Amino acid sequence: MIPNSRTPVFSVNELSEWGVSLAIYPSISAIAAMNAIRSSLDELKETGKDTAQGHKTSPQDFFDLVGMKREVDFDNAVGGDEFTALAEL
Fold first, then answer.
1. What torsion do the CA atoms of 79, 61, 33, 29 make, to the nearest 10 degrees?
2. How far apart are CA 21 and CA 10, in angstroms?
3. Is the pTM of this model over 0.85?
């Protein structure tokens, strides 16, 4: 389903009623991210401040969200020290 395209967009309930068990929404997260990025950059341009980050997301929260611990653990397990070296900068 791609909003604002040539094909009509149907709700999940409508699709389910028609027997559709899988619908693909290829751009749903990319468009949401693009709008959030645009809004954040507009605010920075207008105010000169990065107040859009006021959602209380710390760097650690971000790293947890993107799976950084898994990558660090893997790096350590295979004898790497890349993350250790970065932490010392």
1. 70
2. 13
3. no
